[in-house]
Amino acid sequence: MMEQQSLPILIAVADPADRKALGKALADAGYRKVVSVADGRKAIAAMAGELFPIVIADSRLSGMDGFELCRTLRARELPGYVYILMLTRGNRKSEILKGLEAGADTHLARPVDPADLAARLKAALRVIDLERSLRLTNEEVRALSIRDPLTGIFNRVYLSERLHQEIKRSQRYGHPLSIVMSDIDHFKDVNDQHGHRAGDQILKDFVSRISGSIRIDVDWMARYGGEEFLIVLPETDLPSAYIVAERLRRLVAETPFLLRGKELRITSSFGVASYRSVRQSEKVSFDGLMEQADEFLYQAKREGRNTVRGARPVGPEMKGCAA
I need a labelling partner for 146 at 20 to 30 A (CA). Which of 35, 184, 207, 319 fits? Predict the structure, then answer.
């Protein structure tokens, strides 16, 4: 369970005496990171700068009362769950129910009993820890679902999802987008002569070499299938994409791969497609861009392999180089 000392708590309570009493009770219970405000709008402003997993909200706040504060927090997309304790006048059922309907997790009767506060905070910690554990599990499942298990790069499912987003962004802002499809030459011979485990090692080394030579947090790579890979180059026009593809081709061809202590020469072929919209009405489809890259990859294969081939950008008014 999360340590109390590291958990920030936000108190949104109108009465100064109540704020002071709550601050002392929290300090006595081991909570060291406490921020106090006197109204709901200041609480929203404080939450904008930092996530407070626990909020103690006074039902009688001026301006934005505690109920509106609850509804506002529940309507926002926050990076974690916020456990809200509504400070009510005694145990009035109507006020307690109103707080629960607004989104509060529980109520805290005024005047605050330190033992009651400590018990409710322990319950809050359990809920927060459970939510964080579930969120981490979901993130881990998501990470596994979009990664190729052999190479660790993105898989074809993620490729389809993410490339659609890249295309839309390129169309919206009129920025260039290029993709490079790559295929390891004669990969079947590697498997036939050295075995599939050796082939798997070549695939992993190939990906490591390529992914380590593109821009971090800008460019990205996905396994398209078998020994085919796609490198996505946002903010990159066709001439620049050619330069990148040629650099990657040489990187693969000029440095031998090590296999069981022996050097093995591997080459790869590349097909380049690019898009830049001059007018927002110009559209390009995911399939169209992929088909164009695939077409020029196979042109490279037909023309001897270990080469780069491509076409002019998809946008009809763009004049690009062709190869």
Answer: 184
pLDDT at 4 over 70: no
The whole-chain average pLDDT of the chain stands at: 89
- Rounded CA Rg of the chain: 29
- Residue partners of 23: CB distance under 8 A and separation at least 6: 11, 34, 36
Please give the CATH architecture assigned to the domain spanning 4-145.
3-Layer(aba) Sandwich (3.40)
How many other CB atoms are found less than 10 A from the CB of residue 196? 10
C-alpha 254/C-alpha 134 separation (Å) is 47
Domain ranges of the chain: 4-145, 156-310
User: Can you identify the CATH homologous superfamily of domain 156-310?
Assistant: Reverse transcriptase/Diguanylate cyclase domain (3.30.70.270)
Per-residue pLDDT tens over the stretch 49-88: 889 999 999 998 888 899 999 999 999 988 889 999 999 8
Q: Are 226 and 181 in contact (CB under 8 A)?
A: no
Report strand pairing: 106-110 vs 83-89.
parallel
Q: Which residues on neighbouring strands pair with residue 228, listed in sequence order? A: 183, 225
Instruction: For residue 173, name the pLDDT band (cuts at 50, 70, 90).
Output: confident
d(CA 317, CA 323): 18
What is the rounded distance in angstroms from the CA atom of residue 32 to the CA atom of residue 26? Answer: 8
CA dist., res. 203 & res. 226, Å (int): 9
Active site residue 227: yes
Q: How many Cβ atoms from other residues are within 10 Å of residue 272's Cβ?
A: 28
Residue 171's contacts (CB-CB under 8 Å, 6 or more residues apart) are 277, 280, 282, 283, 284
